[in-house]
């Protein structure tokens, strides 16, 4: 591991709705180093995807970052101009999305969409971009790469499309690749192929990967370090082995026990009772207390801070 | 091209049915002889005319005769102009096509930028203004808009001629009158289509590549939004042609519409049928073209 | 994990009664409220026309021809919106004209709906030949502008109020036929209908019983919006001299008088046009609101 690549401090994101502002990310802090794979884990509604969109600067029109800091290398992402931000996107930092079926534009060929960012960021000619595009498709293991360039997205399978997305995202050698649930929409066998591909690519290049998932299986397979998010906050952060060996926060433990184990026959998967609270109706005190087996009165009153129990493991809970 | 030929073949039954419907309407619902002869004619004269036109034959023989004439392009003579009805209609065709194209151009010029802008500036003042204007454009009868345009731009400020065809200036008011209603419908459509597309995942992908917002909108979103718009534009051809009928009357524009309305008022059935038939072919051809464009725009549709 | 994500998606929804929801949404939607107010206003004007109008709409006044509205020089409070080329009171004619617009608009749509429902049921229920004939007819009607069929019929039958309603109704039924047909086809395949038929229940009645409630909300929405377009069509045909005939009053007819005198007397054509626009706007707003409430599936 090397230099610090990304530092997010106390990030807060809110959305404008008919009933006023709703804050879905409430002070998220984490950092990433060069070459590292960090996983953000949480249920849907925990704010993990919004965090990644905020980082890329592509929040929907009604969303905004209203507090905190995001530093990428030496650039303060909240202060750089739109133009500078655009130059980072797709170039220094790029992103792949959950739904390979809909993430590619249906009316343009794969080649067009691959060449687009190469021509934009590297000023390549169409022919040069075409060549580089074919190289990228080869790299992500697409057979018949030259022909695939002239195909339309609907002519490819889901797994192939996700490979195309990865090729597109990696084509400009980004320093940071954000992968938002990259395997969720895929078959199990395709899932492991894509994860393997991501692992391989990481060894080959020095790209840092921020992987966003609700699936601890994926985390175990690719991540170096894990950030667990709940209701727009980080509730636990630890290196991947430590987290699996020694989870602290009751929410993390809940996630762990709801994960099926390969060698066990499980009749009934454990799951955490209840749902992530609606961002407009956050409980007072610890946000997890209504669902927490350990909660007592103190938990309904005190909102715990994120505290480090050793230099790399932090948790937001007063009970453990 | 093969596809086009196939579609062309498919329109034959539709044309056939249209002629059948017209035949039924003309021969069965009314007495065509009374439409063709002066009201003072004697019973003898009526009978003679009946016989000479073959109206005493069984209905299916009449239909075959009628179809035979149609295939030869013989709609009969206009009893008003005493000349071949089809020729009369075809003479008027260029004027109507000119008006229809000019109106469509105006509709596109108005609706494309407004529809896109109001979608990307959703809920802004501009959006409110545009969507409000679109509803108003739909509620306003186009012939009234035409009259108001004459009032303001031809009578109060004498910029454009009141009526007739000839110079470019003559074309302006009628095509605005006709184009506005279509623009209203198309603006609504482009707006809702763009809104739907702008919410799609691939737009987020395009933004994540670092494309300029203008590129995201004009290249990635608009190309997709066009697909449903073209379909509806084809349906608008029907509205457009229907609109020319009345707009031509308002502006004394010497097209098929004006001719048709006069013919209906004079019960000049040969001209009415010829005009209806030509207009129907025109509409069907534009629908076919739209269908073809639609297929070119959307690679997901196969040609077989 | 699966359970976890699923439970997340299941956001509990409150069920409200439809009426309560409609009233709530009506007042939430400003345009819906405006539409309802306009429609009620125009309907009241139509019903109470004799009491509201200051003059007989057909009464001519040779001395006061083409009198401007009262606020202009030469205008008179006797004729608030001025007079036309025969000295008839524009305001009174507009008031009476609302009767024709609403009468023709509503009855033509009801007629079209009736024809459409019958043909749609027949096509969907009997299938085969009937379906083929009816649906190809529908296609032909959709292929060319309605107004062409209307013109042919009007050329044959000659213009009158009744003809106008028949013509408008008889050429716009295809939308309803398509809607009812597709609903009939899907109802026919449902298990309870199949089993009802299997035990020998009267087929057609079953279909009718299950189809009509399913199409009623779409029907109301489409019919309302079609009232708007029918009002415009009536005005267009009357404008062309093919609809309402004098001495009856119609906004479209007034516009055709107004077109001739536009160079000297702008008010004759301006006010009836405003009346049409306002009425149609009200009906469209009402229809859009009904669509939002009753049938969010239908898109424009």
UniProtKB/TrEMBL annotation, chain A:
The UniProt keyword set, sorted, is: ATP-binding, Cell membrane, Membrane, Nucleotide-binding, Transport
Q: Which GO CC terms are listed, alphabetically?
A: plasma membrane
Q: Domain ABC transporter: where? A: 6-256
**CDD domains, alphabetically?**
ABC_NikE_OppD_transporters
This protein's name: Oligopeptide transport system ATP-binding protein
Tell me the Pfam families matching this sequence. ABC_tran (PF00005), oligo_HPY (PF08352)
Query: Where, per UniProt, does this protein localize?
Result: Cell membrane
Q: Give the source species.
A: Lentibacillus halodurans
Q: Give a GO biological-process term.
A: peptide transport
Signal peptide boundaries: none
Q: Which GO molecular function entries does the Swiss-Prot or TrEMBL record give?
A: ATP binding; ATP hydrolysis activity
Q: Which family does it belong to?
A: Belongs to the ABC transporter superfamily.
InterPro entries assigned to the protein according to its UniProt record, in alphabetical order: AAA+_ATPase, ABC_Ni/Peptide_Import, ABC_transporter-like_ATP-bd, ABC_transporter-like_CS, Oligopep_ABC_C, P-loop_NTPase
The membrane topology term of the UniProt record is: Peripheral membrane protein
Write down the SUPFAM superfamilies for this protein, in alphabetical order: P-loop containing nucleoside triphosphate hydrolases (SSF52540)
Q: What is its main location?
A: membrane
Automatic annotation (TrEMBL), chain B:
Report if keyword Transmembrane helix is assigned.
yes
Q: Which residues form a coiled coil?
A: none
Q: What is its main location?
A: membrane
Cross-referenced CDD domains: TM_PBP2
Is Transport among this UniProt entry's keywords?
Answer: yes
Name any GO cellular component annotation. Answer: plasma membrane
Q: How does it sit in the membrane?
A: Multi-pass membrane protein
Q: Which GO terms describe its biological process?
A: transmembrane transport
Name all ABC transmembrane type-1 domain ranges.
Answer: 93-290
Q: Which residues cross the membrane?
A: 12-30, 99-120, 141-161, 167-184, 225-251, 271-294
UniProt-annotated location(s): Cell membrane
Which UniProt key words apply to this protein? Cell membrane, Membrane, Transmembrane, Transmembrane helix, Transport
Q: Which family does it belong to?
A: Belongs to the binding-protein-dependent transport system permease family.
Q: What is this protein called?
A: Peptide/nickel transport system permease protein
Q: In which organism is this protein found?
A: Lentibacillus halodurans
From TrEMBL, chain C:
Name it: Peptide/nickel transport system permease protein
Instruction: Look up and give the organism this protein is from.
Output: Lentibacillus halodurans
Return the CDD domains for the record: TM_PBP2
Note the superkingdom of the native organism: Bacteria
What's an example Gene Ontology biological process for this entry? transmembrane transport
**Bilayer topology annotation:** Multi-pass membrane protein
Membrane-spanning ranges: 32-53, 102-127, 147-176, 211-244, 264-290
GO cellular component terms attached to this protein's record: plasma membrane
Q: What is its main location?
A: membrane
What Pfam families does the record point to?
A: BPD_transp_1, OppC_N
